[in-house]
Design a protein that fits this description.
180 residues, alpha+beta, five-stranded mixed beta sheet, 5 strands, 42% helix, 24% strand
């Protein structure tokens, strides 16, 4: 699909599917490297960062973007259940706090000029992120990490907030740039 869209737009570009720890590029052959919402799913991001550095030419730039799932906020009357559901969801992601680690990890991997930016993405529309709230609740319930009755009551409260236009969620995204 990406290849077709690029051709339609008249953009000369090649797309590759590869393991982040074994990129199909020669050493020092790329000017830029971008990974968005990837590193949170890697159990060991150190290897992927080393590979990113390997393929970047001297002076090449890296851009990383990930959520910090521990910095997700949802308005609810039941703070304890909200905290438990959010914690369980975050704990189910391989590296849910990788964004806050980017400064250290990029420096340790040999990158220079590391810059970290944080963005709070606010949603008050259930249609935007209700699916994620549903997924959080279902996952927590399936793993048995919070009492099912509490999860269902919490989820119904969130759905009702959505129906009344009172849903409120904040997700924190961390953006990191650096130079090889």
């Amino acid at each position: 699909a990406a290849t077709a869209r690029a051709a339609k737009a008249g953009v000369d570009v090649a797309f590759h599917v590869a393991n982040a720890e074994e990129l199909p590029f020669a050493s020092e052959s790329l000017d830029g490297y971008r990974a968005e919402r990837l590193y949170q799913h890697l159990a060991e991001p150190t290897k992927a960062l080393a590979e990113a550095r390997r393929v970047l030419a001297p002076g090449g730039r890296i851009l990383l973007v990930d959520q910090d799932w521990d910095a997700t906020l949802i308005d609810s009357d039941d703070k304890a259940t909200t905290r438990a559901i959010l914690r369980a969801f975050a704990d189910g992601i391989a590296n849910s706090a990788v964004g806050r680690q980017y400064h250290r990890r990029l420096g340790d991997a040999g990158f220079a000029d590391v810059v970290i930016l944080a963005e709070a993405s606010i949603s008050t529309d259930w249609d935007d992120y209700g699916f994620l709230v549903e997924m959080m609740a279902r996952g927590c319930e399936l793993r048995g990490e919070v009492n099912s009755a509490l999860v269902q009551a919490w989820l119904e409260e969130q759905r009702e907030r959505g129906r009344r236009g009172r849903f409120f969620m904040i997700m924190t995204h961390i953006l990191a740039t650096a130079r090889r």
